[in-house]
Design a protein that fits this description.
Layout lengths: L6 H10 L10 H16 L6 E2 L10 E2 L8 H9 L2 H5 L10
Antiparallel strand pairs: 1-2
Helix pairs in contact: 2-3
Length: about 100
């Protein structure tokens, strides 16, 4: 698997708990992600939840398990470089 996340980014994540990894997705993958988001917002699934408050400046919606019905999400999860980011050493620690 190609290295998508630099060792510096992994160290920053370990230190700060957050890191910005740029240019992971190609332009067509960004467009697919935007289409998937539009599809989720247009037709929320049975597990959808609004996680923002009435006074928030925007709306934050969580919708779970939609990859099974929205092809763009499955493709991003399986065929883009997103899995390589998640698999970066130390990037996503598992807690027990």
């Amino acid at each position: 698997m190609e290295q998508v996340v630099s060792t510096e980014a992994v160290a920053a994540f370990a230190r700060d708990g957050v890191v910005c990894v740029r240019q992971v997705l190609r332009a067509e993958e960004v467009a697919a992600a935007a289409a998937a988001i539009d599809a989720v917002l247009a037709s929320p699934g049975p597990l959808a939840q609004v996680a923002s408050g009435a006074d928030d400046p925007g709306v934050f919606v969580e919708d779970f398990c939609r990859w099974q019905e929205i092809l763009q999400i499955e493709r991003l999860a399986r065929q883009s470089r997103v899995p390589a980011v998640a698999a970066a050493p130390g990037c996503c620690p598992v807690r027990s």
